[in-house]
Amino acid sequence: MNAAAQFKQPRPDEPRARFLIELARALGTYGTSANRIEEVIAYCADAFGYNAQTFTTPTSVFVSLEDDAGDLHTYLARVHPGEADMTKMMALDRVFNNVLDGILSTREAIEEIKRIVNMAPRYPVWMIVICFGIIGFCAGNFLGGAIKEMVASGVVGLVIGLLVQFTGRRREFSRLMEFLSGLCAALIAGTMAIPFGGYVTTVPIIAGVIILLPGLTLTMAMVELAMKHVVSGTARLAGAVMVLLVIGFGVVLGQTIVDRALGTPEMIIPADLPWYVDLVTILVASVCMAVLFQAHLRHAWVMIVAGLIAFYSARYGSMHFGPEVGVLCAAMCVGVASNLYARLFDRPAMMMMLPGLIILVPGSLGLRSLQMFMTDETIDAVQSSFTVLVVGVALVVGLLLANVIMPPRKVL
Global pTM? Predict the structure, then answer.
C-alpha cells in the first residue's frame, strides 16, 4: 500500500472519519431527516477523498468509508433524539462549512461539535413554560375557538409546560410524559367548563398539547418514505403513531373521569373573532416558537415570516382549491421561501421551514381521529385518519415541488 493510500485509510482514530461520525450523530440528535444527513456525510466524505455509504435511523447512524485502495471501515454511533434546537443547528452548519472551506481542521471541528452539543439552553425554564402557555392560547384561535377556548387553552398549555419540565428531569416520569399530558389536558379542560358556563372542550385539549403532537415527526417520516429511506421513515412513523396513541389514551381517560365526576360539559359553539386576531396570534406564536426552538430572538423575524406564509397560503388555498390542495400550496410556498432564505443568508433552510411546517402538520387531526376510535365513532375516525394521510402526502408533494422550483443551494 503506497503512502497516499495509507494516509487516506479511515482508521478508527482518523480525525476525518471521526468528524463524519460526530457530525452525523449531532445532526440526528436535533431532528435532521435521514436524507439530509446522508447528503451531508456524502458531501463531506467526497471532499475528504472517501467513498461513503451512510445508513441512518432515528436512533442510530452507520457510516461506511472506503478509501482509494479499497479498504473499508464501518462505524456505528448511537443517536439520542432530542428537541429541535435552531442555535445548535446553525452552529453545526457553520462548523460543517468551515471544515470544507479549510478554516477549521477536522480535529478542531470535533472539539467544536462536542462543545455545541454540550451547550446550555439559551432560554431559562420559566420562559419556556410561559411560551407553552402563550402558544396554547394562540393555538386555541387557530383551532376555531373564541375567548373562552383561548383562555382555557393557555391554562392547559401552561400546565403542560410545567409538566414537561418536571418529567424531563426525572427518568421515571419522562416515559409517562405524553400520557400525563393528555390526562391533565382533558381534566383541566373539562373542569374549566364549569366556571366558563360551557364551551368546546376539544379545542383547549388539542391546543394545550399541540407542541407535543408528533405532526412534524409524521411529516418527516413521510418525506423519508418518499425519498426511499424506508427503514428510517417506517421507524419514525411508528414512533409518531405510538406518541399519538399514548396522548389519546390519556385524553380519553381524562374525559371519562370528568364525565363521571362532573357530568358531560355543555358545548356552546364559539363566535367568530375579528380578522386581526388571527394576525396577532400568528405574530405572538411565532416569537414564542423561536424560544421553544432555542433560536436567537434576532432570528424571530424568520419564524414570523414562515408563520404568515404558512397560515395565509393554507387558508386561501383551501378556500379556492380545497383543503388538500391548499396544504400542498402552503407547503410549496414555505419550501420555496426556506430555500430562498438559505441562499440569501447562508443559513440552514430548516430555520424557516420548521416553524412553517408546525402550522401545517396534521397532528391535531391525528389526535381527533384517535379520540373517535376510542369513543366508538369508527366511521368518522376512519375518514379522519384518511384525511391525515392525504394531508401528509400533500405536505410531502409540496416540499418536493418547492425543491424543483427553488433548488436548495445548501445540503442543510
Answer: 0.85
